[in-house]
Write a structure and sequence with these properties.
Elements lengths: L7 H11 L6 E4 L4 H9 L5 E3 L1 H7 L10 H12 L6 E4 L7 H13 L4 E5 L18 H14 L6 E6 L2 H4 L1 H13 L4 E4 L5 H10 L5 E3 L11 H7 L3 E4 L2 H20 L12 H7 L2 H12 L22
Parallel strand pairs: 1-8, 2-3, 3-4, 4-5, 5-6, 7-8
């Protein structure tokens, strides 16, 4: 109710406990606090917050237009709504090394469990598009070193992402990740790998947990958790999956409403009012409010019906 019951410190420890090579723990991407609560209810171990999703929710492309304050605010809204640890995409750290340092501290303040910072140039691009450019190794290392040194909570996870695979190959990605681990990264995110053999190569070459990005329509095939675990991956993210599913459904309903003049044919696919009340714990809030007022808790309001009559149907 209101906020998570586990503290930010506890959730950071939870994240670290999950980062076991070969576990391939799944972290679905949340796009709202409510979606994070659904992820928790379905017994996933953690939540991922995608920079691309935060940008899309603002009606922007993923080209580095979002600001640190926007990302930290959205991250805080989602982190406070769930007991699960939340890993957030911090893009390039939003500027120079000093900016990366401030980024980490604001994300700590927002209650996030960890973040990843990448080695693209500013402004960055989606990691599965052509035309990406990366900074030199020393610049990338300075970003990670600044982020790691700026932490006030040593349990806040600093993860390094590299995008050099697309232009320079997997061996170059491994070399870059080794340097970033030396700079202070405690886990790594090799973006846009193209085979299980490449994941296995990265996992074998490094002594820190490895993340796999299972985004749809990208360069990386959608491997199963079992396949990723066998390759040695510690966690897998599904960054845009829920947003794509939700927006796809929204688009279809709008098209039907426009064409047919009613949404009735889609109602069986929708979250019912009763289910929504359950997800947001309407009854819990009602009981709490009544207890404070010293009154008998009222009966939780229920919808007249969760069955919608289609006016086109014969009576």
């Amino acid at each position: 109710m209101l906020h998570a019951t586990r503290t930010a410190s506890q959730k950071r420890q939870d994240l670290r406990a999950l980062l076991v090579p070969g576990a391939a723990h799944p972290f679905p991407g949340a796009f709202t606090p409510l979606s994070a609560q659904l992820i928790e209810e379905k017994c996933f171990p953690g939540v991922y917050l995608s920079g691309a999703v935060i940008a899309a929710e603002l009606g922007l492309p993923d080209i580095g237009l979002t600001t640190l304050s926007e990302v930290a605010a959205r991250g805080g809204q989602i982190a406070r709504s769930t007991d699960l640890p939340c890993l957030i995409d911090a893009d390039t750290g939003f500027g120079e090394p000093l900016n990366a340092a401030r980024t980490v501290q604001l994300l700590e303040d927002a209650g996030l469990a960890g973040c990843h910072i990448e080695d693209q140039v500013n402004p960055k691009r989606c990691g599965h598009l052509d035309g990406k450019a990366t900074v030199d190794r020393e610049t990338a290392m300075r970003r990670i070193r600044a982020a790691a040194d700026a932490r006030r909570d040593p349990d806040f996870l600093v993860m390094a992402r590299t995008d050099v695979r697309a232009a320079e190959g997997v061996d170059a990605a491994v070399d870059r990740l080794r340097a970033l681990v030396d700079a202070g990264a405690e886990a790594v995110f090799p973006e846009a790998l193209e085979s299980l053999a490449e994941f296995e190569q990265v996992c074998t070459a490094l002594d820190v947990p490895v993340l796999a990005n299972m985004t749809e329509f990208g360069r990386t095939p959608l491997f199963t958790r079992a396949q990723l675990a066998e390759a040695g991956v510690a966690m897998a993210i599904y960054p845009v999956t829920l947003l794509r599913a939700a927006m796809g459904a929204a688009e279809r309903v709008l098209e039907t409403l426009r064409a047919e003049g009613s949404q009735a044919s889609h109602v069986p696919e929708m979250l019912t009012r009763a289910r929504l009340y359950e997800l947001v714990d309407y009854e819990g809030y009602t009981r709490f409010d009544a207890a404070i007022a010293g009154a008998e808790p009222p009966t939780t309001p229920t919808p007249h019906t969760d069955t919608v009559v289609d006016p086109r149907s014969p009576s």
